[in-house]
């Protein structure tokens, strides 16, 4: 079963961005295991169960419930049948805020090919056109210059530094915060 109502995008070279499905748990766990060392400096410590098909199945069930409530939109980046990245809009809030938070990663052997930028561009278009969000936020570790470049190329502006913002790689880490304003129409327009 597909999680959410986002559309699939062809990013070129056989790579596509598509909505996550609940049966992606095996492919996701394989990708996360393969990329564990690559992602370790940028991610929270996770229990070993997280990297198992069962752990990912549980996570996808939670995401499906959050997606049904309109609070999350998850995508997979695929090269053929291999998962090579993830993008997720989380914390979607409606009402006068109309905002969400963007997170993403790309496999080590797929970095430097413009896939992160294309993924972010697609997520922003979906957030603006289908979800009608006013604002998308994102945060990076201060030394994650590559991710900051991806955000800047997609029109994000730096809005500040949040001290000890997230528990990443075993410690509370500062994050540079960014936002992208998508439209100035009234909520729901």
Automatic annotation (TrEMBL):
Short name of one Pfam family: Acetyltransf_3
GO cellular component: cytoplasm
InterPro entries to which the protein is assigned, alphabetical: Acyl_CoA_acyltransferase, GNAT_dom, N-acetyltransferase
Domain N-acetyltransferase residues, every copy: 15-183
Any GO MF annotation of the entry: protein-N-terminal-alanine acetyltransferase activity
Transmembrane segment boundaries: none
UniProt keyword Transferase, yes or no: yes
Alphabetized UniProt keyword annotations: Acyltransferase, Transferase
Family the entry assigns: Belongs to the acetyltransferase family. RimJ subfamily.
The protein's name in its UniProt record: N-acetyltransferase
């Amino acid at each position: 079963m597909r999680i959410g109502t986002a559309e699939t995008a062809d990013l070129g070279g056989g790579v596509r961005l598509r909505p996550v499905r609940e049966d992606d748990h095996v492919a996701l766990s394989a990708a996360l295991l393969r990329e564990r060392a690559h992602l370790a400096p940028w991610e929270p410590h996770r229990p070993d169960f997280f990297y198992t098909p069962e752990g990912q199945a549980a996570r996808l069930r939670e995401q499906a419930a959050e997606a049904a409530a309109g609070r999350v939109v998850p995508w997979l980046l695929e090269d053929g049948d291999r998962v090579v990245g993830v993008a997720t809009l989380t914390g979607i809030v409606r009402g006068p805020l109309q905002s969400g938070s963007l997170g993403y990663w790309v496999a080590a052997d797929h970095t430097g090919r413009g896939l992160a930028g294309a993924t972010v561009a697609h997520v922003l278009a979906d957030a603006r056109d289908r979800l009608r969000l006013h604002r998308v936020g994102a945060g990076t570790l201060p030394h994650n210059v590559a991710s900051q470049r991806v955000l800047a190329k997609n029109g994000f502006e730096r809005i500040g530094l949040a001290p000890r913002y997230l528990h990443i790689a075993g410690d509370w880490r500062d994050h540079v915060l960014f936002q992208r304003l998508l439209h100035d129409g009234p909520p729901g327009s």
